[in-house]
Fold RsmB/NOP family class I SAM-dependent RNA methyltransferase.
Amino acid sequence: MRDGGRIEAAIEVLTDVETRRVPARLALKAWGERSRFAGSKDRAFVSGLVLDALRRRRSLAWRMGDDSPRAAVLATLAWDWRWSVDRVAEAAADETHGPGALTPDETARLNDPITLDAAPDAVRGDYPDWLDTHMARVFGGTRGEAGQALAERAPVDLRINTLKTEPERAMKALAPLGVEPVEGMVTAARIPAPDPATRTGAVETIPAFGKGWFEVQDLGSQIAAACAGEIAGKQVMDFCAGGGGKTLALAAAMGNTGQLWAHDSDARRMADLIPRGRRAGVRNLQVRSPVEAEPLKGLDGRMDVVFVDAPCTGSGTWRRHPDTKWRISPEQLERRMAEQDTVLDQAAPLVKTGGRLVYVTCSLFAEENEDRIAAFLARAPGFGRVDPPADYSRWRTPDGFLRLSPKTAGTDGFFVAVLERAG
Ligand SMILES: C[S@@+](CC[C@H](N)C(=O)[O-])C[C@H]1O[C@@H](n2cnc3c(N)ncnc32)[C@H](O)[C@@H]1O
């Protein structure tokens, strides 16, 4: 495809995302199915452009004085992809495929972009107005900057699986991917955010992945899992195991000692858990699926650690899923809060006396984090807060929890509370 056609396709997909309020992934898939002529480079270009436009949707509209998908896509090319305005103009004017020649106003705005200094925080931080109070509660006067960091492209983070290899050996195998070590975490590696228009080789295709040497996992998720503490030889329950990202990290920390239990209220989400565990060399995993009559039977009061990776709005992952920030609603936030209360109440009885309940979300909002913990502690006075591991103390909140964000930690946003059941 020529650039004009690719740009027109990105405008079409962005329009579809916004008018039908569907995930970008589905709109891109639908476009791909309609556009059999598009090759893998075209798909990478269109997908990268749509996602980048979604990342800064509001600030682009504000600076262009136009909230159309066309304006967002053209501005992304000029300001984010650093195309010259002449190049944008030439591609747009492509007679057969392009979205049409730039107007004089578009040309002027692209050539002379205004700053965001006078923009409201929600515009500077690229999130919907109704979330401003939620962002303000956590980030105060720096919420615009926190939002900007959530609008950056994310790196690809890897977790080296110590059940299968040594970090040094894995780093050698990963060298062709351009990985960088992560300070303070020898089992983590990072591939800097790729160029948006190119489809980078999927890390899953290299032989070391097939051998189970590493997993793709955001560094924040790895740190959250590490907050389970010293768990070798213990009884550990991953209560919301889902696809098993945290389960496998917990398994590596246990080194096939003790017993790791995995549970989720949705059996379908755990479908890949057994094969993933096998590939990763996990031998101490027991899956307790909700298809069983009483999946948690016999486990009350037996766990040293119950890890609750709770359902949440995912506001910490906007870098990776920028469409979700425009779809999230107050009703959805309320629903997630109710689910978080339920999940805490269901998980707590499994914790043994002196054991720990580790509550994690990938959301930044206090309503899903501190407020849920405060409400839980009021309902369950046998539990009390303890400090998360000292290694991560630089991200401790004044209340003694952990909050990671792209701005403070260079990771996705995560919240961790470590609670202990009194003796
Ligand atoms: C954030 S996701 C888990 C992601 C997973 N731990 C990982 O690292 O890949 C939250 C999970 O909680 C599950 N869930 C929601 N309500 C639940 C409940 N009451 N009990 C157990 N799991 C629940 C959802 O099905 C979903 O899989």
